[in-house]
Amino acid sequence: MALSVALTGCAGAGSIGTSGRTVTIAMVSNSQMQDAQQLASQFEAENPEIDLKFVTLSENQARAKITASTAMGGGEFDVVMISNYETPQWAEYGWLTNLSPYIEQTDGYDADDIIPSLREALSYEGDLYSVPFYGESSFLMYRKDLFEQAGITLSDPPTWTEVAEAAAQLDSPDINGICLRGKPGWGELLAPLDTVINTFGGRWFDENWNAQLNSPEVREAVQFYVDLVREYGQPGAATSGFSECATQLAQGRVAMWYDSTSAVSTLEDPASSNVVGKIGYAAAPVQEKDPSGWLYTWSLGIPASSEHTEDAWKFISWMTDQQYLRTVGEQLGWERVPPGSRLSTYEIPEYVEAAAAYGPITLESIEGADQQNPTVDPVPYTGIQFVAIPEFQDLGTRVSQQISAAIAGRQSVEDALDQAQKYAEAVGATYREKTS
């Protein structure tokens, strides 16, 4: 009971039913997950023997809590919201339940309908260990009306040089030129920043696991990002994450935002946005490497310690199949359909019409993202906006704290990267020892 109270105090914990077996679900409190919680009473009506208990957390809290709980194996959660970063690693450790046998026994689930790049990213030794709730890449969102008024055009894909020039031209006392994440966290600031580093020719490690965070390419990329957000970005940039930037653009306070393709559910929803129909969408900006967009999915898995795997899978399959997508569209609005998980989503006529401005570029970006070759020069790791090693949660968070401090003006980019290099070199040394 104390654990539930603590979780409720820092985020939200709620049980929908009171009748039978309880499935406890740890989720991130993003808008699509809030929609799922709203619709979950329909699942319970169809499955009266199952009660659902939701524990909702912010992104950084969720990553820390879910990782610690799953690693301990105490059976606290039956369903966990994870990603393509955790899934293959945790499957290798034996922390997750193999979902492929459950998928094969579920009529109509159709795993082949999952977008191939996501299916591969969530697999270990050929089996799926989590399934996508929604998938995303990254793209540039911009105010079409402001660009037209200023006579600004973008290449396809745009370059970061063009983005900086547009931000400078559009920045004014009433509207900021761009919004970019600056909030510390490997899944916050580093998500967009790492794609900038990649496309500028930088990398975290060379092929021999020598840290590269103070290389000329990384320095140029990080200095560019920090200067861009400090000169033309939103107030409080060093504490801004996805949610804060979504609000900035939706309320008409910024001219551009580079971030997740999933943001459209907020920007194109009249209930939450003042700029519906005014946003243009362009591929992730590039400098040297094209394409440069990230690949990420919030997916659902079952910890190996769960004592309710059958019930947990029943809920997961409900929340990730084609019918759920239609339910969201029909009951909540087609702009709120979780994007980027299934190919068939992009064949639903109502969704195709509603998503005409952003649907094709979202699918193209996700399909084109290549976790195996994220950088200009070869690297010994996979992952675009992260390095797919266990140490990256800690390493990435510490590096992000240094760069966020530079965004806040508390230190120089040079000092931030010199410290980041020391952190990365300590991690790289352990991998050099393993391969020597």
UniProtKB/TrEMBL annotation:
CDD domains: PBP2_TMBP_like. Gene3D superfamilies: Periplasmic binding protein-like II. It comes from the Bacteria. PANTHER family: ARABINOSE-BINDING PROTEIN-RELATED, DIACETYLCHITOBIOSE BINDING PROTEIN DASA. This is Sugar ABC transporter substrate-binding protein. The lineage of its organism: Bacteria, Bacillati, Actinomycetota, Actinomycetes, Mycobacteriales.
